[in-house]
Specification:
This protein has 136 residues and is an all-alpha fold. It folds into 2 domains: 2-95; 101-136. It has 4 helices and no strands. Helix 1 packs across helix 3 (45-87). The chain is elongated.
């Protein structure tokens, strides 16, 4: 458990740092130095391999770090949405935890809500309001 918490903190910190303008400037500076040194190394295969290897390693590691933070952000957002549904009078508690359903069930919910949206747009076009619960 402690190692997971440590990894999560590390992943969040790296993800935050990697998205900052200074980090982008540093990466651009590394590329500029690499380009400038090209003539010094006669644009050799080794010179090219250095940047290819470096960018491959960084990309490979960043995929896992970014995926970790994205997964946690998505899960936290889903919990917040579930709480809003749970706490809202008249909301359908069946919508809680939809992300755990099979695709067929999700498609059925989507069709149901698309139908409600169509009906609400028709109500608006006829000059009526589309607020309130449609089942009321």
């Amino acid at each position: 458990m402690a190692s997971r918490i440590g990894y999560s903190k590390f992943a969040n910190q790296i993800a935050r740092l990697s998205g900052r303008p200074k980090t982008f400037a540093l990466a651009a500076a590394v590329i500029a130095v690499w380009l400038i040194t090209g003539p010094l190394f006669d644009f050799s295969d080794t010179w090219q391999l250095v940047i290819n290897t470096g960018t491959t390693i960084v990309t490979f590691l960043m995929v896992f770090l970014i995926q970790n933070t994205q997964n946690r952000d998505s899960e936290a957002l889903q919990i917040k949405i579930d709480e809003l549904i749970r706490a809202t009078k008249g909301a359908h508690n069946a919508l809680l935890d939809l992300e755990e359903l099979e695709q067929d069930s999700l498609d059925e919910f989507r069709r149901r809500y698309q139908s409600l949206a169509s009906a609400a747009r028709a109500e608006l076009e006829s000059g009526r309001q589309d607020t309130d619960s449609p089942e009321a």
